C-alpha cells in the first residue's frame, strides 16, 4: 500500500476506537445525570423525615450530587481530543492513552489516564530503554474526529509484519502549529525530560529552571494536574494554588488545566493573591524595588503601632464629681505599653481598655493623695469600664484597623518619615509617600504584598461568632447549589492555606511577595518555576533569603533544568541570546532552540517621527504572514500610545502588551517597539529585553530609532 493509503487505513482504525470511547462517554454522562437527579430526590425526601434520618439522607445527597457533578465536569471539559496516544507492546494488548481514564461496561480499559502509571511509558520509553513498547503512536483529533496519526518505533526488531508505521515528528508538527489566544496543553507530546519533572514526588520543594520557551510553565501546569490525580487525598482538601506574574498571564494559561479535566486549581496573579484584590498597575522600577524590599516590614510594623491620624489626644472623664484626665503624653505612654505586649492591634483592644482604666484609677489615687475623695480602685475600674463615654473614647483612640486604611495613612510624608526613620532614605520616602496617596482600590501589584503584610500585623478584628456563622452560611449555600463551580469552591472564605503552591516566573518575586506566598504555604509543598536570566528583581540575595524562609523547614529540595527551547525558532533565539550574552548569562544557562524557519528577525531602524507608521505597516505585514497571534511589545509607559496607533486594526489576533506584562506569554509573531526603552525603564533592563525578544514562535520585527540596545 502507498503511504497515504496506509495512513488513511490507520486513521480509520483509530477512528473506530475513538467512536467507541465517545459512545461510552455518552453512557457515563447519562449515568452521572441520573445519579444527580436521584441525589436531589433523596434531598427532597429528607424534609419529611425525622432529624436523624434527615441528616444521613442529606449527607448521602451531598455525596451523590458532588460525585455526579465532578464526573460531569471532567466528562464535559473542553479539549482537542480525548484520546491522543496508543502504545503497542510486544505481547500485551495495545493501551490507549487519553485525558481521562474510561472503562467499558465490563470494566475493560478503553482509555488509560495519562497520569496513571500504566501510561508512563508513553512519555518515558526511548529506543535505548523501550519499556516493552514496540510502537508509540500520537493520535491527533479535533473533537471526535481523528485527523492524523504519527508513529515512533522503539523496538524495530520486534515490529510484526502487519504493524504499519506512519508519519514522523509529532512534536515538530505541534511546535509548528499556529498559536491561539490561550496556551494549549501538551499531553500528547510531553518529552522525557519534562515527564520526569511532572512525575517528581509531591513533597518538599521542586524547582524547575530553564531558559525561555523550555516548557517550564507547561510542565508546572501538567505537574499540578498529575499531583491532583495521584495524591488527591493529600492535596485536594486545602487545594492547589498557581501564582503567575500578571492577569494577562493567568488568562493565557487558564485553559490548560480544564482541558485535562482538572478544575480544582486556583489561578491567581500576584496582584490578586490577597482576597478581593485585582491590582494590575506597576510602580516605576525604583519604587517597586523599595516596596518589595524586606525593609518595608520594619516600616509597616511601626506604622501599625503609630497613633491613628484622628485619635483624640486627651481623655477626660468625670467620675463621682472628680475629673480624671489623661493628656497626650500619657496616652502615648499607654499606647506604647499596650504594643509592648506584642499582640496585633485588632486583638489588643481589651488590653488597651484595661491599660487606660488602670491609668484612670492611678489618677483617682493621686487625687485622693492630694485631698480628693477616697475611691475604691476596683470600683473605679469596674464603673468606668461600663461607661458609654469611656467606650466611645476607646473606639476613637484604638479603632479597628484595616490594611488599606493603614497603608493610605503612609501617604502622609511626615507619618511615613516617622515610620521609616533609619530604614529608608529621604529619596526613597518622598516617591513612596506620593504613590500611597491615591484613592479607593487603585493599588499597584507591589502594594498587594504590603497590604497582606499589614493584614497579618494588625490581626483580624474580633468577630469570631459572626465569622463562624458566615462560613457556616457560605458552606450551606454551597452545598445547596446546583452550580458545579460553587461546589468546587467549597473552601471557607478567606482560608489562606493551600496544600501545594506553584509559583511561575518566580525569579521576579520580591522578598515581600515571597512572604505573602509563604503565609499561604506554611504546610504546603511547592513547585517553583523560574529562569534567573529573565529576572527583573535587583537584589537576588535578599529575594533568595525571603524565598528560603517561605519554604520553611522543607528538607526535600529537588531541582530540574530544562534545556530545549520549544518556542522560538533558532533564528529568533540567536538574536535574543546575543543581547544577554556576557551580561548576566553564561552560555551554559541558555537553552537550545531546535526548530529553524529560515526567517531571520527583521530590524527596522526608523526616525522617531516615522515610528508610528513603521509600527503600523510592520504589524499589518505580520498579521498577513502568520495564521495565529501577533503581539506588539513596548515599554510599559508607551502602551496606551501604541494601542491608539493600532486602534484601526482591531483583529482578535492582535495584542499590545507592556514589557513587564509580556512575561510568560507567546505569540506567533512579535513587533518589538523601541527596545532601548525596555532597557531604560527597568533596573535590570537587558533581561527585560531578553524576555520580550523570546516571545515569538515564528517571526520577529524590531522597530527602533536607535541602536543602543544592540
Ligand atoms: N513537549 C512539548 N510539546 C509541545 N509543545 C511544547 C512542549 N514543551 C513546550 N511546548 C510549547 O513551547 C512553548 C513554550 O512553553 P512554556 O511557555 O511552558 O515555556 P517557559 O519555559 O515557561 O517559557 P518562558 O520562561 O519564556 O515563559 C509553549 O507553546 C508550549 O506549549
UniProtKB/TrEMBL annotation:
Keywords: ATP-binding, Helicase, Hydrolase, Nucleotide-binding. Residues 189-569 form the UvrD-like helicase ATP-binding domain. This is DNA helicase IV. ATP binds at residues 210-217. InterPro entries: DNA_helicase_UvrD/REP, P-loop_NTPase, UvrD-like_ATP-bd, UvrD-like_helicase_C. GO terms for molecular function: 3'-5' DNA helicase activity; ATP binding; DNA binding; hydrolase activity. The keyword Hydrolase applies. It comes from Prauserella isguenensis. GO terms for cellular component: cytosol. One of its GO terms (biological process) is recombinational repair. The keyword Repressor does not apply.
Amino acid at each position: 500500500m502507498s503511504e497515504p493509503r496506509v495512513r488513511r487505513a490507520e486513521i480509520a482504525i483509530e477512528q473506530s476506537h475513538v467512536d467507541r470511547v465517545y459512545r461510552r462517554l455518552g453512557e457515563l454522562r447519562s449515568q452521572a445525570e441520573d445519579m444527580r437527579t436521584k441525589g436531589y430526590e433523596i434531598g427532597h425526601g429528607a424534609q419529611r423525615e425525622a432529624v436523624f434520618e434527615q441528616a444521613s439522607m442529606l449527607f448521602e445527597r451531598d455525596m451523590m450530587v458532588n460525585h455526579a457533578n465532578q464526573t460531569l465536569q471532567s466528562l464535559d471539559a473542553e479539549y482537542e481530543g480525548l484520546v491522543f496516544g496508543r502504545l503497542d507492546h510486544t505481547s500485551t494488548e495495545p493501551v490507549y492513552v487519553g485525558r481521562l481514564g474510561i472503562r467499558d461496561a465490563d470494566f475493560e480499559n478503553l482509555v488509560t489516564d495519562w497520569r496513571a502509571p500504566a501510561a508512563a511509558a508513553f512519555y518515558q520509553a526511548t529506543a535505548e530503554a523501550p519499556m516493552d513498547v514496540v510502537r508509540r503512536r500520537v493520535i491527533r483529533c479535533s473533537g471526535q474526529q481523528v485527523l492524523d496519526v504519527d508513529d515512533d518505533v522503539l523496538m524495530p526488531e520486534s515490529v510484526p509484519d502487519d504493524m504499519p508505521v506512519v508519519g514522523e515528528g509529532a512534536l515538530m508538527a505541534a511546535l509548528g502549529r499556529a498559536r491561539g489566544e490561550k496556551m494549549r496543553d501538551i499531553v500528547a507530546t510531553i518529552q522525557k525530560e519534562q515527564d520526569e519533572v511532572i512525575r517528581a514526588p509531591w513533597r518538599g520543594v521542586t524547582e524547575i529552571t530553564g531558559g525561555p520557551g523550555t516548557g517550564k510553565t507547561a510542565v508546572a501546569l501538567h505537574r499540578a494536574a498529575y499531583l491532583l490525580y495521584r495524591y488527591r487525598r493529600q492535596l485536594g482538601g486545602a487545594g492547589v494554588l498557581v501564582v503567575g506574574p500578571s492577569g494577562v498571564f493567568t488568562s493565557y494559561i487558564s485553559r490548560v488545566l480544564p482541558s485535562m479535566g482538572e478544575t480544582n486549581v486556583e489561578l491567581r496573579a500576584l496582584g490578586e493573591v490577597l482576597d478581593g484584590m485585582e491590582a494590575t498597575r506597576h510602580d516605576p522600577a525604583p519604587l517597586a524595588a523599595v516596596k518589595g524590599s524586606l525593609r518595608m516590614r520594619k516600616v509597616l510594623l511601626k506604622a501599625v503601632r503609630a497613633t491613628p491620624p484622628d485619635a483624640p489626644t486627651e481623655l477626660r472623664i468625670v467620675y463621682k464629681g472628680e475629673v480624671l484626665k489623661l493628656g497626650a503624653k500619657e496616652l502615648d505612654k499607654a499606647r506604647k505599653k499596650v504594643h509592648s505586649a506584642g499582640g496585633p492591634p485588632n486583638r489588643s483592644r481589651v488590653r488597651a481598655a484595661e491599660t487606660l482604666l488602670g491609668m484612670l484609677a492611678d489618677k483617682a489615687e493621686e487625687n485622693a493623695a492630694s485631698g480628693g475623695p477616697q475611691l475604691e480602685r476596683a470600683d473605679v475600674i469596674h464603673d468606668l469600664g461600663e461607661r458609654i463615654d469611656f467606650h466611645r473614647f476607646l473606639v476613637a483612640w484604638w479603632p479597628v484597623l484595616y490594611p488599606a486604611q493603614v497603608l493610605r495613612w503612609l501617604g502622609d510624608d511626615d507619618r511615613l518619615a516617622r515610620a521609616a526613620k533609619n530604614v529608608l532614605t529621604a529619596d526613597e520616602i518622598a516617591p513612596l509617600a506620593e504613590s500611597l496617596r491615591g484613592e479607593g482600590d487603585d493599588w499597584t501589584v507591589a502594594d498587594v504584598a504590603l497590604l497582606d503584610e499589614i493584614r497579618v500585623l494588625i490581626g483580624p478584628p474580633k468577630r469570631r461568632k459572626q465569622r463562624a456563622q458566615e462560613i457556616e452560611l457560605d458552606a450551606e449555600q454551597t452545598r445547596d447549589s446546583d452550580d458545579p463551580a460553587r461546589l468546587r469552591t467549597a473552601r471557607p472564605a478567606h482560608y489562606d492555606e493551600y496544600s501545594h503552591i506553584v509559583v511561575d516566573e518566580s525569579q521576579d518575586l520580591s522578598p515581600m511577595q515571597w512572604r505573602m506566598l509563604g503565609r499561604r504555604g506554611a504546610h504546603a509543598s511547592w513547585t517553583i518555576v523560574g529562569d534567573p536570566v529573565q529576572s527583573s528583581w535587583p537584589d537576588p540575595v535578599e529575594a533568595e533569603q525571603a524565598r528560603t524562609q517561605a519554604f520553611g523547614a522543607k528538607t526535600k529540595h529537588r531541582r530540574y533544568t530544562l534545556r530545549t527551547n520549544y518556542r522560538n525558532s533558532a533564528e529568533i533565539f540567536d538574536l535574543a541570546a546575543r543581547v544577554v550574552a556576557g551580561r548576566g548569562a553564561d552560555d551554559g544557562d541558555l537553552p537550545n532552540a531546535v526548530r529553524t524557519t529560515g526567517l531571520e528577525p527583521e530590524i527596522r531602524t526608523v526616525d522617531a517621527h516615522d515610528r508610528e507608521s513603521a509600527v503600523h505597516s510592520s504589524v499589518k505585514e505580520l498579521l498577513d504572514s502568520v495564521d495565529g497571534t501577533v503581539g506588539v511589545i513596548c515599554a510599559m509607559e508607551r502602551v496606551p500610545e501604541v494601542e491608539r496607533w493600532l486602534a484601526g486594526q482591531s483583529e482578535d489576533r492582535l495584542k499590545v502588551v507592556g514589557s513587564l506584562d509580556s512575561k510568560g506569554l507567546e505569540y506567533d509573531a512579535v513587533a518589538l517597539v523601541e527596545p532601548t526603552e525596555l532597557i531604560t525603564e527597568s533596573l535590570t533592563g537587558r533581561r527585560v529585553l531578553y524576555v520580550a525578544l523570546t516571545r515569538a514562535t515564528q517571526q520577529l520585527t524590531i522597530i527602533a530609532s536607535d541602536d543602543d540596545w544592540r
